[in-house]
Amino acid sequence: MAVTEITNLEFGKMVQAAADKLKKNAEFINSLNVFPVPDGDTGTNMASSMASGAKYERNENSTAVGDLSAALAKGLLMGARGNSGVILSQIFRGFAKATAGLSKLSAQDFVDAYANGAKTAYKAVMKPTEGTILTVVRESAQVGINKVKETSDLTEIVHAIYEASDQALQKTPDLLPVLKEVGVVDSGGQGLVFVLQAFDEALSGRVDKSADYKPDQAEVDEMVNALDHQSVQGKLDPKDIKYTYCTQMLVRIGKGKQVTRKFDYDTFYNYLAKLGDSLLVINDDAVVRVHVHTEHPGKVLSWGQEFGDLQTIEIHNMVWQQEEIMEHDDEEDDSAATPVEKAKKEENVPETAVIAVASGDGIAKLLKSLGVTHIINGGQTMNPSTQDITDAINQSGAKQALVLPDNGNIFMTADQAAQVATIPTKVVHTKTIAQAMSALLEYNQEASITQNQQQMEANMTTVASGEVTHAIRDTKIDGREIRKDDYLGIVDGKIVEADPNLKDTAIKMVKQMLTDDSEIVTILVGQEGDSKTADEIKTAIGKVDDELDVQIYEGGQPVYPYLISVE
Predict the structure, then answer these.
(1) Euclidean distance between CA atoms 430 and 354, whole angstroms
(2) How many CA atoms does the CB half-sphere of 47 hold within 13 Å?
(3) C-alpha distances in angstroms, 186 versus 108, 344, 490?
(4) Are 288 and 309 in a shared domain?
(5) Domain containing 340 — which CATH number?
(6) Per-residue pLDDT tens listing for the chain (567 residues)
(7) Which residues contact 101 (CB under 8 A, 6 or more apart)?
(8) How far lies 407's CA from each of 84, 413, 419, 559, in Å?
């Protein structure tokens, strides 16, 4: 039976079906991991994100599909976990923008909205990588654009979009060599395919029994993030910084004396894109927030005034800041007190909340001893949502906040939380606990959050982060044969050792991490580790260089028996 429009009833069924489909197949999506380690969470993240979106959609009283789409997008954003969850939220953010004001959707409306979702998702990622969920959404959207020219039957159109998404997914290994080497498709892309399959089934009544999969573990997006979405701030020599000024503004749309243009996202965005990079534009009906690195901050501000008045402005000379960081890296802090000592003197809520994501009581205590004021329980396999991080920020009672994700897969979620928080917030893009510890040594309560972000991100690059865990399957990666149950030594996202013996793996990994400049080795003992083995690792390290300061702490972290850093 042909379907020519989507009403609130069809839309609600589609959304709920997608949430159910992702929940049912979360572990299968988790199994599509490049690294054969027990820390996969793409499926879990996408399922949790979609569940939040479906809840918001169900609780929306309006029967207009445009309003239901907006509720879905809001729920996805606040419930977004991990990079895959954030990207999924951006797809439906674009979908919602295109359906605003519509009571129901025609075939053309649906196709246009989905295509706008693809565009929005690409814009949300600073360095879009083909062979990921982005490829899947873009190619399937194009098929929808072509199909609607042939028919107005939404069952045919949505089915064509679903089939195209699966075809695009199967090509992801050809676009990302590491996927081909390991023999998996992109996990985030697989999640989107399940969403579209659910839409197809809900709209047409088709049911694919082959969608039942047996679970395994892990995920691809974490690896993709490690390769292609690393923060480079603080790693550059000042002369290598392309754009001098980090420029931010908040524009009240349609307000002010100099307004000459009606706000249009694409027009607004495209002009700014020509002025620099690291561009982020987020808006609702009332305001638009801008972040961009540019040589022409004046042009950025003038452009904003054409659409509304400027509520807040921040301009920082990144070259000067980087020069200051490098010049004073070895100088003593102008205050003798440590962040901990300062915190002890503060009887009230700190002016700056320093919020870190961590799992393990020992790690939480260690981070707090270095100046962290609030811990969000989470990390690998337990990524917090946008709502979790936003709540921690807003409920801190502080005037401003710094967030340390301590995991690359939490970057986009933390960035989203910083945008919607009610107090000024900056994200220090720490990918590991070791980076967090190193970054916190540069935290200065007297500095602004922007200065702290710069200094902390610069300092965290001086540490090498090692992780020891076990392989959950046979595989081959980077030319290395790995057997199930081998112990793996992973340094800054790359497997460098694989051995049946846990202690030997850790020792071999640390030896590769050491350089002539190494001074301190820190061993965090996890739930599956033990103090005796840690002491034996320490002894072995001492035989390599007896001048190294080796420190052992009970971390209590899951998944990784030992986290080892060298600086």
Answers:
(1) 13
(2) 18
(3) 29, 47, 21
(4) yes
(5) 3.40.50.510
(6) 789 999 999 999 999 999 999 999 988 898 887 665 555 678 888 999 999 999 999 989 899 999 999 999 999 999 888 888 999 999 999 999 999 999 999 999 999 999 999 999 999 887 888 999 999 999 999 999 999 999 999 999 999 999 999 999 999 999 988 888 778 899 999 999 999 999 999 998 875 443 333 333 333 333 323 232 222 233 345 666 778 888 888 899 999 888 999 999 889 988 998 998 777 676 667 788 787 889 999 999 999 999 999 987 888 887 776 666 555 544 444 444 444 444 444 445 789 999 999 988 899 999 998 899 999 988 766 789 999 999 999 999 999 999 999 988 899 999 999 999 999 999 999 999 999 999 998 999 889 999 999 999 998 888 999 999 888 888 888 778 888 889 999 999 889 999 999 999 999 999 999 998 898 999 999 999 999 999 999 999 999 998 898 999 999 988 899 999 998
(7) 64, 66
(8) 14, 11, 19, 14
Q: 277, 351 in Cβ contact below 8 A?
A: no
Q: So what's the pLDDT on residue 230?
A: 29
The Cα–Cα gap between 223 and 359 comes to: 20
Residue 76 lies in a domain: yes
Angle (deg, nearest 10), helices 318-327 and 449-459: 60
Same domain for 470 and 452: no
Would residue 187 count as lying in a domain?
Answer: yes
Q: How far is CA 545 from CA 521, 524, 549, in A?
A: 11, 20, 9
What is the spatial distance between Cα 94 and Cα 72, in angstroms, rounded to a whole number? Answer: 11
Token pair of 279 as six digits: 């561009």
Range(s) of the domain holding residue 521: 464-566
Within this chain, do residues 166 and 247 fall inside the same structural domain, yes or no? no
CA–CA separation, 106 and 113 (whole Å): 10
Q: Which residues of 393-416 are buried (b: 16+ CB within 10 A; e: fewer)?
A: bbebebebbbbbbbbbbbbbbbbb
Residues 383 and 381: their CA atoms lie apart, in Å, by: 6
Domain identity same for 125 and 183: yes
Are 104 and 191 within one domain?
A: yes
Write out the two tokens for 565.
């850093």
- Name the residue among 1, 188, 229, 220 with its Cα closest to residue 89: 188
Residues 6 or more apart from 331 whose CB is under 8 A from it?
A: none
| Rounded-to-10 torsion of CA 523, 529, 531, 537 | -50
For residue 408, the 8-state DSSP code is: G
Instruction: Give the whole-angstrom CA distance, residue 327 versus residue 313.
Output: 27
Per-residue DSSP letter, 333: P
Phi–psi pair at 58, nearest 5 degrees: -65, -35
The count of domains in the chain is 4
Q: Within a domain: residue 372? A: yes
Nearest to 57 by CA among 15, 91, 112: 15
- Whether pTM > 0.85 for this model: the answer is no
Using alpha carbons, select from 514, 516, 567 the residue that is nearest to residue 537.
Answer: 514
> 23 vs 19, 149, 161, 217, 433, CA distance in Å?
6, 34, 21, 14, 29
Whether 237 maps to a domain, the answer reads no
